[in-house]
Write a structure and sequence with these properties.
Elements: H1 6-19, H2 40-51, H3 54-67, E1 71-76, H4 80-94, E2 97-102, H5 105-117, E3 125-129, H6 130-138, H7 148-151, E4 163-175, E5 200-203, H8 207-219, H9 224-237, E6 238-241, H10 244-252, E7 258-263, H11 264-272, E8 277-278, E9 286-299, H12 306-317, H13 320-326, E10 330-331, E11 344-348, H14 351-356, H15 358-369, E12 374-375
Helix pairs in contact: 3-12, 5-6, 8-15, 10-11
Length: about 375
């Protein structure tokens, strides 16, 4: 049972992001139930660590993790460069090595469910998008982590067996060599302008972005007819790409000019490599609303390395928050020096509305973009 509503959690998260001046898709609806989700040994380890004093538990978790073999398996949808940097720092601080499976959020979901249904789940920890995490929570995949770092995160950030560890900021970004300052969009509506014909790319699985923009327009007085017309014009200007990393790479290479719906950290990754990519204009601001979608982490109930799993989640929600910021990710908590949402118009992400009608939004989005050319 979820603690608070997701909408409440995201409103709070977005407020944190703005105060700091801070791969979606729809999971399968009829995925098989996880077999053998409740691992007795793992649960015993989680309960023991959860009950220990804060000043003792880290050392005990490291000790037990090393006795398990000194390794932990994580399934994640993080960008590979970021995942490598984050796990390297975890290993440096704890001595526990991380083996990582990285894929799109949908791939992480499907692999986890398929392995769990066959009693062969290799993940100890899952780190991915909110919808996929909630789908896994519904299948009782997650164990009972309740460590000190999690307790310091506001209860509104605790969801269906998992806890938000970071925000993916979905926003507009551009190649500065291909889009002059005077042509930058200032609202979602601007993307319907004919001047962006052939310059715009959108991600093919981002039905949640479609739902959030649609809701934004409805909340700001647009009629259904006006919204439908805007979407037709936007898609008429666009090409479709599979994957946010691919979107960012094409943008960096100058093969596309504007990303409508990429993650802020993907722009940071390619910009650090010297690409002429930005998400704020000369004013240092981007007025187009940016949706703050939660990503999180959960320990697997039947983990083979439960102490290491518990340790990794606790670290991600604690010391790892500053590591996320160093990699351009937006943390779920306040971190000194965090500028990841500086200049962005961060607004709450409608998790509840999307979750309530995932298939509807996914089907509508698939139909909407079906006529747009595809880039690989």
């Amino acid at each position: 049972m979820r603690k608070p509503t997701m909408a409440a959690g995201l409103a709070a998260l977005a407020t944190v992001g703005m105060a700091l001046a801070a791969c979606g898709g729809s999971p399968t609806q009829d995925a098989p139930a996880a077999a053998g989700a409740a691992g007795g040994a793992a649960d015993s380890t989680y309960q023991k660590l959860n009950a220990m004093p804060e000043n003792q538990v880290r050392a005990e978790a490291i000790k037990e993790a090393k006795a398990e073999g000194g390794t932990v398996s994580m399934y994640t949808s993080m960008n590979a460069d970021i995942a490598d940097a984050v796990t390297a720092e975890f290993t440096k601080q704890t001595g526990i090595k991380v083996t990582t499976y990285r894929g799109h959020s949908e791939d992480v979901l499907q692999r986890t469910l398929q392995e769990a249904s066959a009693n062969k789940l290799a993940a100890d920890v899952v780190e991915t998008n909110f919808a996929e995490l909630d789908a896994l929570g519904n299948k009782k995949i997650f164990g009972a982590y309740d460590g000190p770092a999690g307790k310091k995160i506001d209860a509104t950030y605790h969801y269906n067996g998992w806890i938000a560890s970071r925000l993916n900021i979905l926003e507009v970004g551009w190649n500065t060599k291909l889009v002059p300052e005077q042509d930058l969009p200032t609202a979602w509506e601007d993307l319907a302008d004919p001047k962006y014909k052939g310059k715009l790319t959108i991600e093919q699985t981002d039905s949640d972005w479609y739902e959030n923009v649609t809701k934004w327009w409805k909340d700001h007085g647009k009629s259904d007819a006006e919204i439908a017309d805007l979407w037709q014009k936007i898609v008429g200007n666009a090409k479709v790409v599979n994957g946010h990393i691919t979107m960012a790479e094409l943008l960096a290479a100058g093969q596309t000019a504007i990303n409508a719906d990429n993650y802020s950290y993907e722009y940071t990754v390619v910009a650090k490599k010297g690409a002429p990519v930005k998400d704020v204009g000369a004013s240092g601001k981007n007025p187009v609303p940016a949706f703050a979608r939660p990503n999180g982490v959960g320990v697997v109930a039947a983990a083979k390395h439960p102490a290491a799993a518990w340790l990794l989640e606790d670290w991600m929600l604690g010391d790892g928050q500053a590591v996320f910021v160093a990699q351009g990710l937006t943390p779920a908590t306040k971190v000194a020096g965090d500028t990841t949402t500086e200049g962005l118009n961060v607004v709450p992400y409608d998790t509840d509305g999307y979750e309530a009608n995932q298939k509807k939004w996914s089907d509508e989005y698939d139909k909407l973009i079906s006529t747009a050319p595809k880039l690989k």
